[in-house]
From TrEMBL:
Keyword Transmembrane: no
This protein's name: Spermidine/putrescine import ATP-binding protein PotA
A Pfam family per the record: ABC_tran
Upper lineage: Bacteria, Pseudomonadati, Pseudomonadota, Alphaproteobacteria, Hyphomicrobiales
NCBIfam families (UniProt xref): potA
Entries under InterPro entries matching the protein: AAA+_ATPase, ABC_SmlMolc_Importer, ABC_transporter-like_ATP-bd, ABC_transporter-like_CS, Mo/tungstate-bd_C_term_dom, P-loop_NTPase, PotA-like, Transp-assoc_OB_typ2
Encoding gene per record: potA
Record's subunit section: The complex is composed of two ATP-binding proteins (PotA), two transmembrane proteins (PotB and PotC) and a solute-binding protein (PotD).
Reactions catalysed according to its record: ATP + H2O + polyamine-[polyamine-binding protein]Side 1 = ADP + phosphate + polyamineSide 2 + [polyamine-binding protein]Side 1
Family classification: Belongs to the ABC transporter superfamily. Spermidine/putrescine importer (TC 3.A.1.11.1) family.
EC number(s) from the headed UniProt entry: 7.6.2.11
C-alpha cells in the first residue's frame, strides 16, 4: 500500500493555479523527493500533505485513510523546515520532547524516547543545552530528532539543508539518508537542488509550473529524461534538433545536420516516434575533448573550437563550437587541459545519448 497518495490534487490561490491535477503514489518506507525550480509548487504540495493548507480539489490519503479533513495535529506527521524553528528558551531535551506532550506517556518512557532520538541523530550528550549553544547543523539534527521522536507515519522535509554551508550540507545529506534507512520511515523531501535529489532519493518527482514532468529513480530521470525541461534541469545537457529516420531492434536512428546519423538505444528514447522531428540529448560529461590529431576510436568524432573555459578545480566546463552548434563539455581537468581557441576533437558514444520528441525552438 502507498503510504501517501495524491489523487487529482489541484491548488488554486485566487485565480492562480499553483498545482495542476497532481497524482502521486509514495510507497511505504521510500524516500521521495519533490524537485523543481523555485515556484514550481513543491512546497505547496508538501504543505497540503502536512495539512497546513487545503487542496482546492482532489484527495490526499495517508496509509489508505482520506485525510483532507483531518487536522494537522491528528495526521501523525513529522515536519522539518529550512529554519529549524527550535524553541530558544527550552533545552534541547525539552525541544525534542515537545511533540510527546500529548501522547500520554510516562515520564520515564518520554525520557527514553528523547534519549533514543538524540542518539539516532548522533548528539546523545546535548540534552541539557539550549539551541543557541549548538551549531546550525546540530540544530538541524535536533529539529529532525524532534520530528522523529513521535514515530510519525510520514516525515515531511522542506529544504531542510538549505541554510547549511556546502560541506555541512553534504555531510548532512548522508546523515539524513542513514537515519531514514535505519528507521525505514516514509519521507517526502522538497528541494530545488538536483544533486541533493539524485543523491538521496528512491524516487524523484520532477515538477515544473505546478505539474509533474516525470517520476522515476535518480538514474531514470537523469539518464532517460521525459522532457526537455527534465533534461535541462538535471545536469548540463546539450539538446540538438534531429530527424528520426528509423527505429529497429538496434535502436532509434537520428539524423542531425552536422553530425550525420546516430543510433540511440531504444530504451533511452521511450517517447519518440519512428519518424519525424526529434531531439538528441547528450550530457556534457558524456562528451570528451581530445587533441584534434588523436587517433580515431569507437566514438563519433567531430572537429570543434573551444570558445570559453570555465575552470572548476578538478573539472572544466568547456564551451565548444562545432559548425553552427554550441555545445558544453564537462571533463576532468587532467584529461586534456585545453585553452580558449584550441582546435579539438569532440567525441561521444551514441549509446550514451538519449532522445526526446519534437524540435528545439
Ligand atoms: P520555492 O522553492 O521558492 O519555495 P516552490 O516550488 O516550493 O518554490 P511554492 O512555494 O509551492 O513553490 O509556490 C508555487 C506557486 O504558488 C508560486 O508561484 C507562489 O508564488 C504561489 N503561492 C504559494 N503560496 C501562495 C499563497 N499563499 N498565495 C498566493 N500564491 C501563493
Amino acid at each position: 500500500m502507498s503510504a501517501v497518495s495524491l489523487t487529482s490534487i489541484v491548488k488554486k490561490f485566487g485565480g492562480f493555479t499553483a498545482v495542476h491535477r497532481m497524482n502521486m503514489e509514495i510507497p511505504d518506507g521510500s524516500f521521495v523527493t519533490l524537485l523543481g525550480p523555485s515556484g514550481c509548487g513543491k512546497t505547496t504540495t508538501l504543505r497540503m500533505i502536512a495539512g497546513l493548507i487545503d487542496p482546492t480539489e482532489g484527495d490526499i490519503t495517508i496509509k489508505g485513510q482520506r485525510i483532507n479533513d483531518v487536522p494537522i495535529h491528528k495526521r501523525n506527521l513529522g515536519l522539518v523546515f529550512q529554519n529549524y524553528a527550535l524553541f530558544p528558551h527550552k533545552t534541547i531535551a525539552e525541544n525534542v520532547a515537545f511533540g510527546l506532550k500529548y501522547r500520554n506517556l510516562s515520564r520515564a518512557d518520554a525520557e527514553q524516547k528523547v534519549k533514543d532520538a538524540l542518539e539516532l541523530v548522533q548528539l546523545p550528550d546535548v540534552g541539557g543545552r539550549y539551541p543557541k549553544q549548538l551549531s546550525g547543523g546540530q540544530q538541524q539534527r535536533i529539529a529532525l530528532a524532534r520530528a522523529i521522536v513521535i514515530e510519525p507515519d510520514v516525515l515531511l522535509l522542506d529544504e531542510p539543508l538549505s541554510a547549511l554551508d556546502a560541506n555541512l550540507r553534504e555531510d548532512m545529506r548522508v546523515e539524513l539518508k542513514r537515519i531514514q534507512h535505519r528507521i525505514g520511515i516514509t519521507t517526502v523531501f522538497v528541494t530545488h537542488d538536483q544533486s541533493e535529489a539524485l543523491a538521496m532519493s528512491d524516487q524523484v518527482v520532477v515538477m515544473s509550473n505546478g505539474r509533474v514532468e516525470q517520476v522515476g529513480t535518480p538514474e531514470e530521470v537523469y539518464n532517460t529524461p521525459a522532457s526537455e525541461f527534465v533534461s535541462r534541469f538535471l545536469g548540463i545537457s546539450n539538446i540538438l534538433a534531429a530527424t528520426c529516420r528509423n527505429i529497429d531492434g538496434s535502436g532509434l536512428e537520428l539524423e542531425l545536420p552536422a553530425f550525420g546519423r546516430i543510433t540511440v538505444p531504444k530504451e533511452r528514447a521511450p517517447n519518440v516516434g519512428s519518424t519525424g522531428p526529434a531531439q538528441l540529448v547528450i550530457r556534457a560529461e558524456k562528451l570528451l575533448l581530445t587533441e584534434k590529431s588523436a587517433p580515431a576510436d569507437e566514438r563519433v568524432a567531430m572537429d570543434g573550437v573551444v570558445e570559453a573555459v570555465d575552470y572548476q578545480g578538478q573539472a572544466a566546463r568547456y564551451f565548444v563550437r562545432i559548425g553552427d552548434h554550441h555545445l558544453q563539455v564537462l571533463n576532468m581537468i587532467d584529461q586534456y587541459p585545453f585553452q580558449e581557441g584550441a582546435e579539438v576533437s569532440v567525441r561521444f558514444r551514441p549509446r550514451d545519448c538519449a532522445a526526446l520528441p519534437g524540435a528545439t525552438a
